[in-house]
Design goal:
The protein has 352 residues and is an alpha/beta fold. The protein folds into 2 domains: 59 residues, DNA polymerase, domain 1 (Orthogonal Bundle), CATH 1.10.150.530; 267 residues, TIM Barrel (Alpha-Beta Barrel), CATH 3.20.20.70. Strands 3-4-5-6-9-10-11-12-13-14 form a 10-stranded mixed sheet, covered by helices on one side. Strand 13, helix 10 and strand 14 form a beta-alpha-beta unit. The longest helix is centred in the middle third of the chain and has 19 residues. The chain is elongated and about 70 Å long. The chain starts with 5 loop residues before the first strand and ends in a 24-residue tail after the last strand. 42% of the residues are buried.
């Protein structure tokens, strides 16, 4: 059985330089290849036109570029674009381009499936197959940046890790991807334009603080009452709110960075004043803002969007307590691209 070629993007720049020196070539060839792989996003060795044909052939014989492929692209009535992204081993994840009049945001995946069990999320119904490699995360961003330039005549402005998977369960690879995205030798994006959204893994939130990360943190909260949160997000039993709050206090003490809470209000689940009051108490320990997110149905009648009166109640009480609150209307619902809907349905119109 023929052994699979090593993905050349797993090599550092120094390792590429060493490869060329050990093969009797100049070290700067490694710099050239590194630039093609990351800054220029080359999919094949043939694209590396400042290398000799012989050098490209040698690379082709020894290495692979396991680049993603956008298998299917769907465009919503509101301009949102959803990509079905095929990985080198045939597995598929989804990523989303979300346009507004002033910016374009990439929503990217970090895992194939998800290891958590949130009852309201379509991705949670999929078995977690594996973590994405740093280059597979990076490729999603590059693909969406190109779509943003093509369809909206502007570069990508923001990135959110809110696609498939729990990014803190793939911590090392996510950080490596962000390093590439923010590096001048990669995409050169500001880390302050990147938000990592977690369901709340206390140990890893503390590790982020210790590692001095510069991107933003968002927490998918949805209830500040343990019994309710455990009912809709069963992993909360292992990571209860007290532990999460301590981790977030640690995060703020270390980083002085505002914490964003993502919060869906459902009818009959968390739509009373007692739930709003609990959220206010949870938010009080550090500067924070709350994004009230419209629920996107996944075919489970137990979860239904709350009445507008409940949303207004949240907004009024949060504002009275000097907590910044925004109401996020869903984008891309007609193509199942909205928050919580990513599940590899691969349906709808393919745009070529």
């Amino acid at each position: 059985m023929q052994q699979a070629k090593k993905d050349i993007r797993a090599l550092t720049k120094e390792q590429l330089r060493e490869f060329f020196v050990s093969n009797g070539d100049k070290a700067f060839r490694g710099n050239q290849v590194y630039e093609w792989l990351w800054s220029k996003g080359a999919h094949t060795f043939e694209e590396m036109t400042n290398l000799s044909k012989q050098t490209r052939q040698k690379l082709q014989e020894g290495f692979a570029i396991n680049h993603i492929k956008v298998d299917q692209m769907q465009r919503s009535n509101d301009g949102t674009i959803k990509n079905a992204v095929r990985l080198h081993d045939g597995l598929v994840v989804e990523s989303v381009l979300i346009p507004t009049p002033t910016r374009t945001t990439a929503c990217v995946s970090s895992q194939v499936g998800c290891s958590l069990d949130c009852k309201f999320c379509a991705t949670a119904k999929l078995k977690r197959m594996r973590n994405l490699n740093p280059d597979e995360v990076y490729d999603q961003v590059v693909a969406i940046d190109r779509q943003s330039r093509l369809y909206y005549d502007r570069p990508l402005s923001n990135i959110v890790f809110m696609g498939m998977g729990e990014p803190l369960m793939n911590y090392n690879n996510v950080l490596k991807a962000i390093d590439k995205i923010t590096s001048p030798e990669g995409l050169g994006m500001s880390p302050r334009r990147i938000t990592v959204s977690t369901s709340g893994v206390p140990k890893m939130i503390k590790k982020m603080a210790d590692d001095g990360v510069r991107f933003k943190l968002a927490v998918s909260l949805h209830s500040a009452i343990d019994e309710v949160r455990t009912a809709i997000m069963p992993f909360n039993e292992n990571f209860p709110l007290q532990d999460l709050r301590q981790a977030l206090q640690y995060w703020y003490a270390k980083t002085k960075s505002l914490i964003t809470y993502e919060y869906v209000v459902w009818k009959g689940i968390n739509d009373t004043k007692a739930h709003v009051d609990a959220l206010v108490r949870f938010c009080k320990f550090a500067p924070s803002k709350v994004n009230l997110i419209q629920y996107n149905a996944i075919g489970d009648d137990a979860f239904q969007q709350a009445d507008e009166e409940a949303i207004q109640l949240y907004q009024d009480i949060l504002q009275k307590n000097n907590i910044t609150v925004t109401i996020r209307r869903s984008r891309g619902q007609d193509i199942d691209a909205a928050c919580g809907q990513l599940a590899n349905k691969e349906n709808g119109q393919v745009i070529t």
